[in-house]
Amino acid sequence: QVQLQESGPGLVKPSQTLSLTCTVSGGSITTNYYYWSWIRQPPGKGLEWIGYIAYSGSTYYSPSLKSRTSISRDTSKNQFTLQLSSVTPEDTAVYYCARAVSNWNEFDSWGQGTQVTASS
Prior knowledge:
Order of helices and strands: EEEEEEEEEEE
Mean pLDDT: 97
Strand content: over 45%
Radius of gyration: 13 Å
Number of helices: 0
Helix content: under 10%
Shape: globular
Largest sheet: 7 strands, mixed
Number of strands: 11
Structural class: mainly beta
């Protein structure tokens, strides 16, 4: 059974870059047809998909966040990483990593989530 675990700083200052890592166990991030996403939920709001890195290493980002987003991976550690630049207080949210199989937007496994606050 696959498990995902987010890690990273809980506090980021405005204008800095948010960096989070998702460590995957129980399955390889290079297995065919798996898509590994970052999703966030701001306080009092719904879920917002940020982007994914596919089994092949290709990436796709939400158009609204594309200019500030980068997702990469370290296959030797079975991890993938989110970087979100130029953060503002509006980036404060619980950030989740999640897995989808075949259809990139149908998630079957989630991490527990990690709170990130953008504040000076």
